[in-house]
Design brief:
Main location: membrane
Keywords: Cell membrane, Membrane, Transmembrane, Transmembrane helix, Transport
Strand content: under 5%
CATH class: Mainly Alpha
Family: Belongs to the binding-protein-dependent transport system permease family. FecCD subfamily.
Structural class: mainly alpha
CATH architecture: Orthogonal Bundle
Order of helices and strands: HHHHHHHHHHHHHHH
CATH superfamily: ABC transporter involved in vitamin B12 uptake, BtuC
Shape: globular
Low-confidence stretches: 3-19
Protein name: FecCD family ABC transporter permease
Mean pLDDT: 80
InterPro entries: ABC_BtuC-like (IPR037294), ABC_transptr_permease_BtuC (IPR000522)
Length: about 375
């Protein structure tokens, strides 16, 4: 008997094809490193020149005496530094960094959720009128009530986002009783256009309040401190946790309604929870940083290009990338016209537009 028996023939070595995991790990690692460096730059760079050694001492002291109840001037005297330097780091730069991180992550995840909900790869949080509703509510409390408290802004933003979402659902189901991505998209665009028009009318009819509205609408973070960040952070966290919990049902929903139902996913409940998560994230981000554009559209596209459509991998990376872009935009906003500043909303738009143009021209980035 010639030849080798199949039982004794040597096996061919198994060749493992390189999947997306190495690229995902490299991208996540680079994004984390970039985020850490940018956060450090955000804490050490500002319109007021504070020596790096002084910034380090102030940060260590503020973390050591967290919750002590002492004011910034008291801690500055105890530490032996200038009170203005201590306040610039603890009361301005630190909360501003937290706001940029939180708003960026919220917008990135909200955009990813929106693209799954509407099954539209070019969707972003404003497509359901959530941002328009939040902005409209804030304009109302500024113009009609004369209130400029950040705590009131957060409450009004969330209330406006919820009301706008409810209106979109009512209009989207009117006469049919069936919620479809097409109906939600059309209703959201209509509601957003109406609310944006009314907001513009209020702004133009109240020149005295125009400076406040312009500062908020342009995404100016220079005057936002802990009183803005602390009320919105729990809402952002709740939205992020809810979004991550929906990653599995979202993967099923991407396969189509019938396939998702056959896999055991409750399509109606998943859509409702998606809208709730989008409302929490987009509403809180709008209250924190104003109506920032492009982040909710750009970050999910970049994440999808790196890790693919799996939402369990896409959502964390989208949050990370969006936070990186937001903090980068904030740092650039401080130094590009130093000692003055540019609103971060303008910088984020300038950063996002070229990247978005490149992404939509890529075949792989154009679909879900």
């Amino acid at each position: 008997m010639t030849g080798r028996s199949p039982l004794t023939a040597p096996r061919r070595p198994r060749i493992r094809r390189a999947g997306p995991r190495p690229r995902r790990l490299v991208a996540t690692g680079l994004a984390l490193v970039a985020l850490v460096l940018l956060c450090a730059a955000s804490l050490y760079v500002g319109s007021r020149l504070v020596p790096p050694t002084t910034v380090s001492r102030i940060l260590i002291d503020s973390l050591t005496h967290l919750g002590s109840g002492q004011s910034s001037p008291e801690r500055a005297r105890a530490l032996g530094v200038i009170a203005q330097d201590y306040s610039a780091v603890v009361d301005l730069r630190l909360p501003r960094t937290v706001i940029a991180l939180s708003a960026g992550a919220a917008l990135g995840v909200a955009g990813a959720l929106m693209q799954v909900l509407t099954r539209n790869p070019l969707a972003e949080p404003g497509i359901l009128g959530v941002n328009a509703g939040a902005a409209f509510a804030i304009v109302l409390v500024i113009v009609l009530l004369g209130v400029s408290s950040p705590v009131v802004f957060v409450a009004a933003s969330l209330a406006g986002a919820f009301v706008a979402t409810l209106a979109v659902f009512l209009i989207g189901t009117l006469g049919a009783g069936v919620i479809t991505p097409e109906r939600l998209t059309l209703a959201g665009v209509a509601i957003g256009a109406v609310l944006a028009g009314i907001t513009s009318a209020f702004r133009l009819s109240n020149p005295r309040e125009y400076s406040i509205l312009l500062s908020w609408e342009s995404g100016d973070l220079s005057q936002r401190g802990w009183e803005t960040a602390l009320p919105a952070l729990p809402v952002v966290l709740a939205g992020l946790v809810l979004a991550l919990a929906l990653a599995g049902p979202m993967n099923a929903l991407l396969l189509g309604e019938d396939m998702a139902a056959s896999l055991g996913a409750n399509v109606r409940r998943t859509r409702f929870l998606l809208v709730l998560a989008i409302t929490l994230l987009a509403g809180s981000a709008t209250a924190l940083a104003g109506p920032i554009v492009f982040l909710g559209l750009m970050a999910p596209h970049v994440a999808r290009w790196i890790v693919g459509p799996d939402q369990t991998r896409l959502l964390p990376l989208a949050a990370l990338l969006s936070a990186v872009i937001m903090v980068l935009a904030d740092v650039i906003a401080r130094v590009v016209m130093w000692p003055g500043e540019v609103p971060v909303g303008i910088v984020s738009a300038l950063l996002g537009a070229p990247v978005l143009i490149v992404l939509v021209r890529r075949r792989r980035a154009s679909g879900l």
